[in-house]
Amino acid sequence: MDTPQITVPSHGPSPVPGDATPSSGVIHINFRHAAGFTVIGNHLAQHRGLSLAAIGLAAHIQSLPAGARIGIKRLAERFPESETRIAAALRELEAHGYLHRSRVRLADGRIVTRTASYNQPGAAGRPVTAPRPRTTPKPTPQPTPPPPRTTAPEPHPAPTPPPAPTPQPTPVLVPAPTARTTPPPPLPQPQELTPKLQRVAAALLADLRRHAPQLVLSEHDIHALAPGVATWLERDAHPDTVRHALTTDLPSPLKHPAKLLRHRITTLLPPPLPGAQDVAALARPGVIVIPLQNCDGCDRAYRSRHPGHCRDCRSDLGTAA
Question: Is the pLDDT of residue 14 over 50?
Answer without folding.
Answer: no
